């Protein structure tokens, strides 16, 4: 049977590449002349010449990830870079020291199996996603069919109605009160709370624009993110008078209302929420758990998915929902009124409880 000649493929650089199998591994040959490229590939497959090692062949996965990050630093968010550095430092340690040319599908599967004892399926898939993207700059490798540990559904913590009353009662006057209200009432992410600017608050129109986020970079420093988590994250929310009044009291001097609203370290919110929760006897769900609580409130009130997604800034890959469905402004206003009425009733209960506790404390 006649052996098929490798076909030279023109690369974006203008050079040509042929790929052949040598000792069970796919090997690439590159040359400026397509005929020379093909001849070298045939000779290499026949064992007449050996594969020459280039700097690209010698690079390890660890070094390749660093190069991948640096080449794309201008278009990657600080949080994404921090995530990549975390994978580089903590995942697949033996594989990180391996040369790119020696990494194949079997090596990836072994790396997954080795880390499966301490990592979730999601964590491992995210790590392999980065590794595959990095490898694609050097070689072709098929990651389909890789086996991951069984996914365990994680139950996210959130507060029920009575616990929300306890939280709003207990957080009154605390330095983290406003961030807590923005998370549980309006469903803001922690990064959005920390990135909120005075210029984004319309006191007259009773609106808040979500258009900034503060995230940690690879050095652990908090920096403003140029883009939000997704396109849906950029949104305008109806801001209830209760929160507007709190914001007005937070900075009474209008001349100083510029830039970020909250200059505190994000850990201040976390630590105070934890203390408030422990003192009140309610579960500590974290700041993100308050966002889950907000989503649960909308579900309980029967807010339709499309409106809930718009309020929460959640994205969807469903074309029908993202392109063809539209939210009537009257429905959105009704949803805003329902959610504000719900929390205003809770605030009334919380204020009564707070006043009762103060009265008894003074007796």
UniProtKB/TrEMBL annotation:
<dbReference type="GO" id="GO:0015074">
    <property type="term" value="P:DNA integration"/>
</dbReference>
<dbReference type="GO" id="GO:0006310">
    <property type="term" value="P:DNA recombination"/>
</dbReference>
<feature type="domain" description="Tyr recombinase">
    <location>
        <begin position="154"/>
        <end position="337"/>
    </location>
</feature>
<dbReference type="InterPro" id="IPR010998">
    <property type="entry name" value="Integrase_recombinase_N"/>
</dbReference>
<keyword id="KW-0238">DNA-binding</keyword>
<protein>
    <submittedName>
        <fullName>Integrase</fullName>
    </submittedName>
</protein>
<comment type="similarity">
    <text>Belongs to the 'phage' integrase family.</text>
</comment>
<keyword id="KW-0233">DNA recombination</keyword>
<dbReference type="InterPro" id="IPR013762">
    <property type="entry name" value="Integrase-like_cat_sf"/>
</dbReference>
<dbReference type="InterPro" id="IPR002104">
    <property type="entry name" value="Integrase_catalytic"/>
</dbReference>
<dbReference type="GO" id="GO:0003677">
    <property type="term" value="F:DNA binding"/>
</dbReference>
<dbReference type="Pfam" id="PF00589">
    <property type="entry name" value="Phage_integrase"/>
</dbReference>
<dbReference type="InterPro" id="IPR011010">
    <property type="entry name" value="DNA_brk_join_enz"/>
</dbReference>
<dbReference type="InterPro" id="IPR050090">
    <property type="entry name" value="Tyrosine_recombinase_XerCD"/>
</dbReference>
């Amino acid at each position: 049977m006649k052996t098929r000649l490798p076909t030279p493929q023109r690369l974006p650089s203008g050079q040509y590449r042929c790929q052949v199998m040598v000792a069970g591994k796919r090997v690439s040959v590159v040359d400026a002349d397509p005929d020379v490229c093909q001849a070298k590939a045939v000779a290499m497959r026949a064992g007449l010449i050996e594969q020459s090692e280039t700097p690209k062949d010698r690079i390890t996965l660890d070094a390749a990830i660093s190069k991948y990050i640096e080449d794309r630093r201008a278009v990657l968010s600080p949080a994404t870079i921090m995530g990549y550095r975390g994978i580089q430092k903590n995942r697949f340690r033996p594989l990180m020291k391996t040369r790119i040319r020696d990494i194949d599908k079997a090596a990836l599967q072994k790396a997954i199996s080795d880390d499966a004892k301490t990592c979730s399926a999601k964590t491992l898939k995210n790590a392999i996603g980065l590794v595959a993207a990095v490898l694609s700059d050097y070689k072709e490798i098929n990651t389909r069919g890789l086996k991951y540990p069984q996914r365990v559904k994680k139950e996210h913590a959130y507060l029920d109605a009575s616990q929300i009353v306890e939280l709003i009662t207990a957080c009154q006057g605390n330095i983290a009160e406003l961030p807590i209200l923005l998370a549980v009432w309006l469903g803001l992410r922690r990064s959005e709370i920390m990135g909120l600017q005075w210029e984004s608050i319309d006191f007259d129109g009773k609106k808040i624009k979500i258009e900034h986020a503060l995230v940690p970079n690879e050095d652990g420093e908090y920096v403003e993110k140029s883009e939000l988590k997704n396109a849906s994250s950029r949104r305008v929310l109806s801001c209830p008078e209760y929160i507007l009044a709190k914001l007005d009291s937070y900075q009474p001097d209008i001349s100083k209302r510029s830039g970020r609203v909250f200059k505190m370290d994000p850990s201040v919110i976390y630590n105070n929420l934890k203390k408030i929760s422990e003192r009140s006897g309610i579960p500590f769900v974290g700041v993100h758990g308050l966002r889950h609580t907000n989503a649960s409130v909308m579900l309980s009130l029967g807010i339709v998915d499309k409106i809930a997604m718009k309020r929460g800034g959640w994205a969807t890959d469903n074309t029908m929902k993202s392109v063809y469905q539209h939210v009537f402004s009257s429905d959105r206003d009704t949803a805003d009124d329902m959610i504000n009425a719900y929390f205003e009733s809770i605030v009334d209960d919380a204020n009564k409880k707070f006043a009762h506790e103060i009265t008894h404390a003074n007796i």
